[in-house]
């Protein structure tokens, strides 16, 4: 029993010693923390120095921006030089295609108009011939004048109109002056035409 008590006393003494040893360690940590709480002193800079630093920063920033602009131009200019002809060619292609289509459409319209005009022209000539045979010269003149209006340079229509004027001049004493002027104009272009000279004799005798 006495041995057991002595061993317990020994353990208790050891525990006390450990507690005492821990306190110096804690004191050391507290001192270290106090030392770290001291304020950091900033280095004082004069106003001139601050202004100089600011100007240097702005200058560097400008220099950087200038370099960026120059680099961008150096990259973009070759691209523009390369791409512009391609865009121009594409634009030219579509512009040319557009005008070709306009010309083609215009030609088609002209062909359609020419067919319609030719149809009307033939109709007027045919109707004029019918009225000449019936000796209705005023009606014949009307249709021949329509034919001349469609194709002003046609000898066929101009000669028929002159002929109708001559018949109306002989029978009704009308259209003589018109017939004479038209016949003289045709003679300038067709001086070897014998029929025109016969008509000239008719108009001159009136």
In short:
With 206 residues, the protein is mostly helical. Helix content is 87%, strand content 0%.
Percent of residues in beta strands?
under 5%
Strand count? 0
Q: What's the shape?
A: rod-shaped
CATH topology of the domain at 124-204: Serine Threonine Protein Phosphatase 5, Tetratricopeptide repeat
Low-confidence stretches: 28-33
* Structural class estimated from helices and strands: mainly alpha
CATH class of the domain at 124-204: Mainly Alpha
Tally the helices: 6
**Straight-line distance between termini:** 182 Å
The secondary-structure element order is: HHHHHH
Radius of gyration: 59 Å
In the CATH hierarchy, the architecture of the domain at 124-204 is Alpha Horseshoe
Average per-residue pLDDT, rounded, comes to 76
Biggest β-sheet strands, sense, barrel: none
The percentage helix is: over 70%
Provide a descriptive summary of the structure in words:
87% of the residues lie in helices and 0% in strands. It is mainly alpha-helical and 206 residues long. α2 runs antiparallel to α3 and α5 packs antiparallel against α6. The radius of gyration is 59 Å and the shape is rod-shaped. It starts with a helix and ends with a helix.
Keywords:
single chain; 206 residues; mainly alpha; Serine Threonine Protein Phosphatase 5, Tetratricopeptide repeat; 6 helices; 0% strand; rod-shaped
